[in-house]
Amino acid sequence: MICALDVDYRAASVAVAAVAFAGWGDAVAALERVDVTAGAAAAYEPGQFYLRELPYLCRMLDALPAMTVLVVDGYAELDRGPGLGGHLAAARGLPVIGVAKTRYAGAPAVEVRRGTSKAPLFVTAVGIAAADAAAHVAAMHGPYRIPTLLKRVDALARGTAAQ
Length: 163
Hints:
CATH superfamily: archaeoglobus fulgidus dsm 4304 superfamily
Distance between the termini: 22 Å
Strand content: 25-35%
């Protein structure tokens, strides 16, 4: 199974959501889960962003069945080394695809344009060829820039998802 993950910081808690699905073109998740942890997230440290999210992502994955590929909101690879996805790949021993909405200068991202959007998604990967990762993201369900299940995991993490 493929698992998309997202983290949302709140004033007194951190929410992490997971949406698992069998195929890149799936419109509906096979599994959804949201966990909320009391307390604020660790402070942001420049160049160490992954430290804020990695513990929550790993805890979520510990509670799920085995996955084959992970998708994160952000970069898997940066110009200076691993991004959040790269650190998650190292921690879990799984391929990770990073899907970012904004360009990070110097990151080796493949631009993916979906639907009629002029703005691309920026796809990086660890453990899978970047071109293959980009093709998977392009093939995801939905007519808009953000694929249906990536929009769903974001809404679940933020607590704005319709049930």
